[in-house]
């Protein structure tokens, strides 16, 4: 065969790096999948060759598995596999080898397809009772078969385990009791009086204090936890209309405040642990970016960052569980862990036959009612009223002055125009119904030597605002191989591609001139979409909302995530070493184009923006783990390790103007206007050493400690490294002898923790930087020197780590035979040496100086209560979960050298405070209700319709002493879920909410008097009728025309009417499912093990008194920008297991 060298080809083909990696990963995954799920033809005449000396029976069985396609199932309590044997055979039939291996040991075996089940043969009759045959199948509550369940005769050593299909068969003495046990399920017992078929449904163990919990660099059981960690099991959460991980967490974990900031496709959820900033996200041990990768928009004045969630490439269906580290448990992660840590564990293969699962759904998405603008006729009438009101006020006519009305005012709209007014629904040009297609396929299975999990996901969402959509393809695999008895290799690979259509609404802001929704709210409703000449109607300097759908703005992201790990058992079940390398690489391309026929930003001009950014995050860690149980006295669990973490990113962006619309971005060099290129590059590195140790004494007293040494290249020598310690204690009170007589307490534990974490999150460099100068400098002696660069900033060697000291006390409990269980925690976090910027230094070379300053405290509590409310075994079950949390943040020390208004310098002032004057209605038309204190204000503040400011201290004047302060933070976060199971039906209802929250009233923002009295006023909504005016609404309770004039109130503080109580309770999901398995599937059961069909409604109801668009969504910086509307989603789907 002749080989053709690619190097000799004349034409070179350039393939983007991400495409190469995607293809390589796809081919690699395909090959692994073929290998993993291949099922060769089996033969019971398999030939075995063994030469083993002084080994355990378990090692012999492993050698047989390595040479054949058979897998052994046994229970070590039934079959002694630790027995030392020597065996030598050559090309011997496997059955003869097994006969020789177990001769005289009372062990029998049964061969079922690829499975060999080992059982103990009872050699002694029990009370001369006749044996009876019992057969059956064991499944879980959802109908899934359960292999490996131990079936024992109570009080005897005889028993078996269920096979790969969940079936079992056993000879049982008449009158004896069978006991079914499996990890994670409650024990089931049944007395046997005759031959029978006994099918068993195992129930999940409700003892949450015994569940396995992921902690920093390891796992433990909840009963041994000394710190505050919340766990979210994603299998119980509806994923029907969920595009990303963060949307699953709304209200699900106590202490984790999740707030939806944008319902757009892939929309963001702000996650905060106990009121801190964005937490660290760690996926399978690899630190991941917490924000989405976005490309800017250059000078095109579109929303600079689309408001989407991070981890967009992680399919929610691939997540097994989420742990939230809330207190000193986060200290072992060092830098950035002051905001808490979210540990995400993805699904992995299990030791079962290949199982294929399809899960898919289709969803219809509809908008919540939005602000309803005035009709054409209403708009004209309102415009006339406030235009006349402004005329009276400006000219000092009654009631705003002594002059009478001069009858010279001319209405803006005549009666004939009002009578003929038409109405255009501008919002209808922008808003629409959406839909979601979501499909997942998983293949999982494996043996003792190889376990695999493969998944593919397709997700497509059409948003409810024009030009908003997303489409995702994701492929993931988790392969683990027991290569040698002491060596296990694991490879996790995730590749994904996302494509977004970006709406002009829903990002980080927006204005009337470039946000489609705000433009629709601004345009008067009497204007038609197009004029008589067929051209789009223009109003003021705002673009026509119906034309803004021509703006083309697309972002395409792709990425891959690789995680390779090697686990070495140095001393089996005691000492092990793990080496792990992980990399996450993403890139994003954005293509924004505004055609020349759209009036945009005050002009007709074609403009475009091209951008490319990429980032890479790498994690390299090595850990040594020691675990040892010293009888009943002591249990030790310790980890030491070190790691290296690197982050780098770069980008290139280009703005261009005036290009032919038919060419657009296909040939940017054809642009006739200006070009504006920009680029950036950034990198940082961290190195760490860490250790964790836990000692459990007498199964009653647990002491744990961690230490981490972190180094960063951001600080100067001498400050690059810092140590972050923690210590925690737990007392298992229920295990004390004096508690044994209290039967209603099942488990009770008191715990406390103390720890420190650090933060190096400072945006700018602390090292002196140079900027391009390219100037010639002429000195007094006429010599000339060329200066290419100038120092643009000095060094800042004194800036150091920000530190957070965390304290927590808590209690875990389970009572009434584990029918009620939960936890309660109280915490205080002191943040000192804050990293920030001082802009007040008069001698600074730059506008702001990086520095350490201040001290504030976060404190609060959180609680979780779970309950099994009612149960009729195998008929009905009702369970509930309630999460509650509260936090606050107050200043102890503010930034020095900064001027604060006197009213802001208060003891324990909230960090999230806003200030206002409390009002008591408005001044009436004859000023008869104006108090004496109002007369201390300027004349315009004494006019009819102006708010009456409450004299809080009763001194008959309005001063800064009357300024009120309010905290914008919610007082209570709540999540409440109920699950009902009736036979094959299940109903899940989950709601969440916030109480005591105050926020800017967006509805009032679009009904201000200042927007409707101009010659060309903006449109408004029904709340304009609450504004006081002297002609038609003297009973109005909102400030009138007089408030539009600049009045210098003491402290320049606003009024309370701009803010409103935004407490709410939202029903997040109502899901109804029906499950089919076993005989109910009929002939389909030959190919399918279970089917679940379901309907789901997301956000069906919201209960609130807030009159703005939505009490939760906060798109703009102050919440006053046009928000992407809240949506209701109706989903229909199915899950089929083969």
From TrEMBL:
<dbReference type="InterPro" id="IPR008969">
    <property type="entry name" value="CarboxyPept-like_regulatory"/>
</dbReference>
<dbReference type="InterPro" id="IPR036942">
    <property type="entry name" value="Beta-barrel_TonB_sf"/>
</dbReference>
<dbReference type="InterPro" id="IPR037066">
    <property type="entry name" value="Plug_dom_sf"/>
</dbReference>
<keyword id="KW-1134">Transmembrane beta strand</keyword>
<dbReference type="Pfam" id="PF13715">
    <property type="entry name" value="CarbopepD_reg_2"/>
</dbReference>
<dbReference type="GO" id="GO:0044718">
    <property type="term" value="P:siderophore transmembrane transport"/>
</dbReference>
<protein>
    <submittedName>
        <fullName>SusC/RagA family TonB-linked outer membrane protein</fullName>
    </submittedName>
</protein>
<dbReference type="InterPro" id="IPR023997">
    <property type="entry name" value="TonB-dep_OMP_SusC/RagA_CS"/>
</dbReference>
<keyword id="KW-0732">Signal</keyword>
<dbReference type="InterPro" id="IPR039426">
    <property type="entry name" value="TonB-dep_rcpt-like"/>
</dbReference>
<keyword id="KW-0812">Transmembrane</keyword>
<dbReference type="InterPro" id="IPR012910">
    <property type="entry name" value="Plug_dom"/>
</dbReference>
<dbReference type="Pfam" id="PF07715">
    <property type="entry name" value="Plug"/>
</dbReference>
<keyword id="KW-0813">Transport</keyword>
<comment type="similarity">
    <text>Belongs to the TonB-dependent receptor family.</text>
</comment>
<dbReference type="GO" id="GO:0015344">
    <property type="term" value="F:siderophore uptake transmembrane transporter activity"/>
</dbReference>
<dbReference type="GO" id="GO:0009279">
    <property type="term" value="C:cell outer membrane"/>
</dbReference>
<feature type="domain" description="Secretin/TonB short N-terminal">
    <location>
        <begin position="70"/>
        <end position="118"/>
    </location>
</feature>
<feature type="domain" description="TonB-dependent receptor plug">
    <location>
        <begin position="223"/>
        <end position="341"/>
    </location>
</feature>
<keyword id="KW-0998">Cell outer membrane</keyword>
<dbReference type="Pfam" id="PF07660">
    <property type="entry name" value="STN"/>
</dbReference>
<dbReference type="InterPro" id="IPR023996">
    <property type="entry name" value="TonB-dep_OMP_SusC/RagA"/>
</dbReference>
<keyword id="KW-0472">Membrane</keyword>
<dbReference type="InterPro" id="IPR011662">
    <property type="entry name" value="Secretin/TonB_short_N"/>
</dbReference>
